[in-house]
Amino acid sequence: MVKKKSNKFGYTRQYHISLSYQQIELYEKAIKIQNELYQFTLKYLYKTYGRKHIGRPLPFGQGINYLNNKIKAMFIKEKYDLKRWNAKKLGLSSHAADEFLKSIFTNFSQYRKRLEQAGRMSDVEKYNLRMNITKDKNGKHKNPKHRSWYRKGSMNFLRNNNSFRTITSQKLPNGNTKLVSPHHLNVADFGEIIVFENLIRLKDYQIIHLDYK
């Protein structure tokens, strides 16, 4: 996302980049960790705030950051026996992990709203839904796949070699992603990358964050 330095509003643009072999290796390592973090986080959220704990409120505000930090700490301890997040060993920066966890929590909170609504159904209504007896206003069956009441709108685990493709670059210590030349960007974690398109018009803009895909 880029934002004009004198403007409060920003917009996104997609560009084509070229990565070195070392940068590609780093990207693949980061994606691997991100996939593992997704599986770990989703399992924790279902176990802690899923159908058996509908009455347990989801955190909000600073509570979300506390939850994300807790999940990160458990993840690196259980999976890699680390006490602190180490970007060099994991390949994924702490900031990128934070942004990723925020997106997971946002999607899960949307699922929780549906779950709470479905949880108000009677046992008979839940059974009818599971057996695909319930019909909508047009007379069509609502659940041809015979899914349980708590599966509607649920988030799926990664299976069959499915993977995420995008990671978010963290900010540089002394500022945001920097435009080095019309075809070169200097970004955190990856260093200098080559961009095929001419970026000269971005010199008056502030690059807020960068997604690799």
Please outline the helices and strands.
Blueprint: E1 2-4, E2 10-11, E3 17-18, H1 21-49, H2 62-80, H3 87-90, H4 94-118, H5 123-130, E4 167-169, E5 178-181, E6 184-187, E7 191-195, E8 205-207, E9 210-212
Antiparallel strand pairs: 1-2, 1-8, 3-7, 4-9, 5-6, 6-7
Description:
With 213 residues, the protein is α+β, with helices and mostly antiparallel strands. The chain folds into two domains: 1-16 and 165-213, no CATH class; 33-163, no CATH class. It is built from five helices and nine strands; from the N terminus they run βββαααααββββββ. The strands form three sheets. A four-stranded antiparallel sheet has the order 3-7-6-5, with no helix packed on it. The protein has a three-stranded antiparallel sheet with strand order 2-1-8, with no helix packed on it. Strand 1 (2-4) and strand 2 (10-11) form a beta hairpin. The longest helix has 29 residues, at 21-49.
